[in-house]
Backbone:
């Protein structure tokens, strides 16, 4: 299903390059970029005004315009990996994403960019998700894409990977699709074990990132990635997330952006249910089936105000209004402070450091023993051992041996019907 809105005319090549240079300039973040476009009408006019802006600035955060040659080199690097820049003002720029205050000035995309124009739902959750959680993520993703919508996630381990995989399997049905938003460059695969998933996403879905190609992900990148996941989506679903999970950052962004937040409830004895359960207490929509999400999507699509034309992409320079204040650029200077506060949000960065980058990219699995990896797939809800074998991708004999060890250690218990669960602590 597509958003039926009239798109703006395509930007000129000179304006496209100017917007990319402005966006990569030191101390200019998404909020300042938007303020400057609002003030001057085009990036070219904003760049022409930079000497005057700098002359009026008394702040320590000085603006230094990005070098033209460096910007062109970045574009060439992107071309080498088949990545296309989608710039704020392009017809392909997602309508809903353009509505958020700190929308990325541009991002790179590989794959089916037409998915960016379809109605989307974000699905996020724990990296150490249980097999039941991953199974529910796959079920939701399959039913959402079968209904013609797009699933957006972050290509992380656990819930993200399960949601993407199920959506890709449904693409043969000419249904919706899936978009992965990365924390590093659009050509940087993280985690490394998702190499095959990444290739499938590039071929059958869409992979995007606002980071320059080749940039390895860092902790501070993931909160910014998360606001794109929620910004692309009419609503965001949280499945299994601890109290300090980065998925809760995505949920918070969704709420701040005026989007629906769905939470899948879980057992109070499972720490991974703490996040969704707390979201439900705070007013999130309890999600126990895809129908809950689909009903909300269809209701939102009927909201004319949400889908009214919103493309402030005028490329003609505007005349600045007369200003009798001491500085005619107070709003721009204030936005510089706002962008700096976003970049230096230590609370978000610390959460993500713990949950996203707890392992080195080059050696993602060295710290995880096979036994613990298998145990993480279990929850307090009984799970078929056959499903555990399938999800873990381990030989049946090895799974059987590990379960015996865990049972003897008093960590799991068996149930009728060849099922097993964690023992609640």
Residues:
């Amino acid at each position: 299903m597509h958003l039926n809105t009239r798109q703006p005319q395509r930007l000129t090549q000179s304006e496209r390059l100017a917007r990319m240079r402005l966006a990569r300039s030191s101390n200019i973040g998404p909020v300042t970029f938007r303020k400057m476009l609002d003030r001057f009408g085009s990036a070219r006019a904003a760049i022409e005004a930079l000497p005057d802006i700098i002359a009026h600035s008394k702040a320590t955060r000085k603006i230094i315009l990005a070098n033209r040659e460096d910007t062109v080199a970045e574009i060439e690097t992107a071309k080498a990996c088949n990545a296309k820049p989608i710039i704020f003002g392009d017809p392909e720029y997602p309508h809903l994403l353009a509505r958020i205050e700190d929308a990325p000035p541009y991002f790179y995309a590989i794959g089916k960019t037409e998915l960016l124009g379809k109605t989307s739902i974000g699905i996020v959750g724990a990296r150490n998700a249980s097999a039941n959680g991953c199974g529910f993520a796959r079920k939701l993703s399959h039913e959402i894409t079968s209904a013609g919508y797009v699933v957006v996630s972050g290509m992380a381990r656990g819930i993200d990977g399960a949601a993407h995989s199920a959506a890709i399997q449904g693409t043969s049905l000419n249904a919706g699709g899936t978009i992965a938003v990365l924390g590093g460059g659009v050509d940087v695969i993280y985690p490394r074990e998702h190499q095959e998933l990444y290739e499938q996403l590039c071929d059958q879905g869409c992979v995007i990132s606002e980071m320059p190609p080749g940039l390895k992900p860092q902790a501070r990148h993931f909160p910014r990635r998360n606001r794109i996941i929620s910004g692309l989506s009419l609503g965001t679903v949280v499945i299994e997330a601890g109290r300090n999970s980065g998925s809760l950052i995505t949920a918070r962004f969704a709420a701040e952006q005026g989007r629906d937040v769905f939470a899948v409830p879980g057992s109070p004895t499972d720490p991974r249910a703490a996040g969704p359960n707390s979201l439900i207490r705070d007013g999130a929509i309890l999600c126990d089936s895809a129908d809950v999400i689909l009903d909300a999507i269809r209701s939102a699509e009927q909201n004319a105000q949400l889908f009214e034309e919103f493309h402030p992409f005028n490329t003609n320079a505007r005349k600045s209004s007369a200003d009798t204040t001491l500085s005619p650029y107070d709003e721009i200077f204030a936005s510089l402070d706002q962008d700096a506060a976003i970049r230096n949000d230590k609370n978000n960065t610390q959460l993500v450091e713990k949950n996203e980058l707890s392992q080195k990219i080059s050696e993602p699995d060295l710290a995880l023993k096979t036994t613990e990896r298998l145990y993480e797939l279990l929850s307090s809800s009984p799970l078929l051992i056959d499903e555990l074998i399938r999800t873990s991708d381990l030989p049946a004999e090895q799974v059987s041996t590990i379960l015996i060890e865990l049972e003897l250690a008093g960590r799991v218990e068996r149930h009728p019907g060849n099922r097993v669960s964690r023992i609640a602590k």
